[in-house]
Amino acid sequence: MHFKLPAILAVASATVSIANPTWQAENSWIQSFEGHQAPEHTSPRPNISCFPKTPHQPPPWSPPRNKVCYVKSYNDSVSDDSTYVLNALHDCNNGGHVVFKQGLKYTIGTALDLTFLNHIDIDVQSYIQFSNDTTYWQANSFRFVFQNVTSFFKLGGNDVNIFGGGTIDGNGQIWYDLYASNIYTLRPVLFGLDGLHNSTISNLVLRYSPEYYHFIANSTNVVFDNINIAGGSKSANVAKNTDGWDTYRSSDIVIQNSHINNGDDCISFKPNSTNILIQNLFCNGSHGISVGSLGQYVGEFDIVQNIYVYNISMHNASDAARIKVWPNTPSALSGDLQGGGGSGLVQNITYDTILVDNVDYAIEVDQCYGQSNLTLCLQYPSPLTISDVLFTNFQGKTSKKYAPETSTFACSSDSACSNIVAQGIDVQSTGGERDAFCLNVDVATLDVNCTDTYKGFN
Ligand SMILES: *[C@@H]1O[C@H](CO)[C@@H](O)[C@H](O)[C@H]1NC(C)=O
Ligand SMILES: *[C@@H]1O[C@H](CO)[C@@H](O)[C@H](O)[C@H]1NC(C)=O
Ligand SMILES: *[C@@H]1O[C@H](CO)[C@@H](O)[C@H](O)[C@H]1NC(C)=O
Ligand SMILES: *[C@@H]1O[C@H](CO)[C@@H](O)[C@H](O)[C@H]1NC(C)=O
Ligand SMILES: *[C@@H]1O[C@H](CO)[C@@H](O)[C@H](O)[C@H]1NC(C)=O
Ligand SMILES: *[C@@H]1O[C@H](CO)[C@@H](O)[C@H](O)[C@H]1NC(C)=O
Ligand SMILES: *[C@@H]1O[C@H](CO)[C@@H](O)[C@H](O)[C@H]1NC(C)=O
Ligand SMILES: *[C@@H]1O[C@H](CO)[C@@H](O)[C@H](O)[C@H]1NC(C)=O
Ligand SMILES: *[C@@H]1O[C@H](CO)[C@@H](O)[C@H](O)[C@H]1NC(C)=O
Ligand SMILES: *[C@@H]1O[C@H](CO)[C@@H](O)[C@H](O)[C@H]1NC(C)=O
Ligand SMILES: *[C@@H]1O[C@H](CO)[C@@H](O)[C@H](O)[C@H]1NC(C)=O
Ligand SMILES: *[C@@H]1O[C@H](CO)[C@@H](O)[C@H](O)[C@H]1NC(C)=O
């Protein structure tokens, strides 16, 4: 039997329901249905395929859902809708479809632990904004163990699909301004994943994250598809550390078909990121697609392995392809970013088909991260090895920042790096040069004009 919503339910929204005390008592609008006809106002779950490169594991598959819950909203841009959100997620967990309805605005003013999710679709058609109460968020956001990362909400569980075409807004301006006056401000990341498995996140618009847009921790088999990221500060205070995605203790992640305008790494692979496919991205204004930084913490062993990066256009960035490793001695980039002395391994990394447009370094392999004094860095060679790295089919022009160098390959000792290959590198500096600073690497496998002119690191 085809399910059809009664007219009154078809216009169900929180504002309507709030006017009615009986409805307000209910958690959310719930509707069960059978057969293949979905109720009105639901977006079909996108059929995501990973193409043209295919991941190590097929994208997750989900069974159909059999219930719909519509999230209520005060729709006034001030009141906290968090209870409505939690209620709908609980009501439709284990087999349902939750709808943030088009035309409503949702405000989230409470840190939400969403690690209970299981077999659920979350259909974000509307506009969701996090509140601007920086005092509340700094005291209550979720703390991750890495680099003082915190998040507005923590997403975890199994078989979760988030889609719908809506916008999620981190209200970043207030945070960019606060950070400018205090670098120890704990700015939440927009999407915090901790233990999310067999899931997809697609067709979303993300705006003004206070810090990273995604932090992916302890997660496996998650695909991101068609994500549009932009933000930026409207004041003189720059929106810093707005990485697109950071992966940590995670494997089998795909990030593809996305458009990113940001102010730090477009993507970064933090410690213990393995089997990751990145393809078809437009990145503008970033710090490139980065392995690292690694080796930040003494006594830790960081692994980044089996990474494939394909078909990226990189515009107005500090780097296109980057591997950044802290030296084996304490170093500081800034008061809130310091480290060095850790070990580990970077192995089997490919950057294939990269367009470079006004980028400072097309390729930057750097084992002196956070230490601008090269002499000092070389006195403490890194115990973190880099091997089997392929840079292939790069095209375009670098900026004038390090001209005539287009790239840098700098390992801290002879034994730190092996089998680093750069082939088909058709990248020119402002005057047509193809120079690169090469140190402790096999120059025979690098399709650049290796020189010993050190111009610095990003
Ligand atoms: C989903 O996409 C795959 C690959 O493009 C295709 O084989 C499959 O038939 C599609 N499934 C549906 C339900 O559209
Ligand atoms: C914070 O948000 C509230 C509610 O939208 C608004 O009234 C207030 O002006 C905002 N405060 C700042 C500092 O932007
Ligand atoms: C929600 O608020 C917006 C404007 O803030 C308004 O345009 C819209 O009609 C409201 N939706 C409902 C269902 O009241
Ligand atoms: C990941 O899992 C480990 C082990 O269960 C846990 O200690 C840690 O807090 C989790 N989160 C992060 C961000 O590492
Ligand atoms: C975390 O923040 C504290 C100060 O709040 C700072 O001392 C420390 O260096 C930070 N740690 C990292 C890894 O950034
Ligand atoms: C992920 O999916 C696979 C295959 O369906 C399943 O074996 C595994 O248990 C799932 N992972 C979790 C954490 O549920
Ligand atoms: C990364 O994996 C290695 C090897 O399993 C382990 O020793 C190390 O503690 C892990 N690091 C983190 C940050 O989880
Ligand atoms: C490369 O990515 C762009 C989007 O940035 C896409 O339009 C194009 O089709 C992709 N090319 C291939 C060969 O997949
Ligand atoms: C790239 O970033 C610059 C600087 O923020 C901006 O002016 C430009 O419009 C962006 N380009 C695109 C295509 O988004
Ligand atoms: C290297 O990584 C790629 C994915 O980027 C993977 O397909 C391949 O199997 C890995 N090679 C080895 C020897 O593990
Ligand atoms: C760099 O470090 C070396 C070795 O410690 C030291 O001799 C030199 O003065 C330093 N250079 C600068 C510019 O600080
Ligand atoms: C390579 O770089 C050196 C030093 O900058 C320069 O003298 C030489 O002309 C370059 N060779 C080519 C083939 O570009």
From TrEMBL:
<dbReference type="GO" id="GO:0045490">
    <property type="term" value="P:pectin catabolic process"/>
</dbReference>
<dbReference type="GO" id="GO:0071555">
    <property type="term" value="P:cell wall organization"/>
</dbReference>
<dbReference type="GO" id="GO:0004650">
    <property type="term" value="F:polygalacturonase activity"/>
</dbReference>
<keyword id="KW-0325">Glycoprotein</keyword>
<dbReference type="InterPro" id="IPR006626">
    <property type="entry name" value="PbH1"/>
</dbReference>
<dbReference type="InterPro" id="IPR000743">
    <property type="entry name" value="Glyco_hydro_28"/>
</dbReference>
<keyword id="KW-0326">Glycosidase</keyword>
<protein>
    <recommendedName>
        <fullName>galacturonan 1,4-alpha-galacturonidase</fullName>
        <ecNumber>3.2.1.67</ecNumber>
    </recommendedName>
</protein>
<keyword id="KW-1015">Disulfide bond</keyword>
<keyword id="KW-0378">Hydrolase</keyword>
<comment type="similarity">
    <text>Belongs to the glycosyl hydrolase 28 family.</text>
</comment>
<dbReference type="Pfam" id="PF00295">
    <property type="entry name" value="Glyco_hydro_28"/>
</dbReference>
<keyword id="KW-0677">Repeat</keyword>
<dbReference type="InterPro" id="IPR011050">
    <property type="entry name" value="Pectin_lyase_fold/virulence"/>
</dbReference>
<keyword id="KW-0964">Secreted</keyword>
<feature type="signal peptide">
    <location>
        <begin position="1"/>
        <end position="19"/>
    </location>
</feature>
<feature type="region of interest" description="Disordered">
    <location>
        <begin position="36"/>
        <end position="62"/>
    </location>
</feature>
<keyword id="KW-0732">Signal</keyword>
<feature type="active site">
    <location>
        <position position="287"/>
    </location>
</feature>
<dbReference type="GO" id="GO:0047911">
    <property type="term" value="F:galacturan 1,4-alpha-galacturonidase activity"/>
</dbReference>
<dbReference type="InterPro" id="IPR012334">
    <property type="entry name" value="Pectin_lyas_fold"/>
</dbReference>
<dbReference type="GO" id="GO:0005576">
    <property type="term" value="C:extracellular region"/>
</dbReference>
<keyword id="KW-0961">Cell wall biogenesis/degradation</keyword>
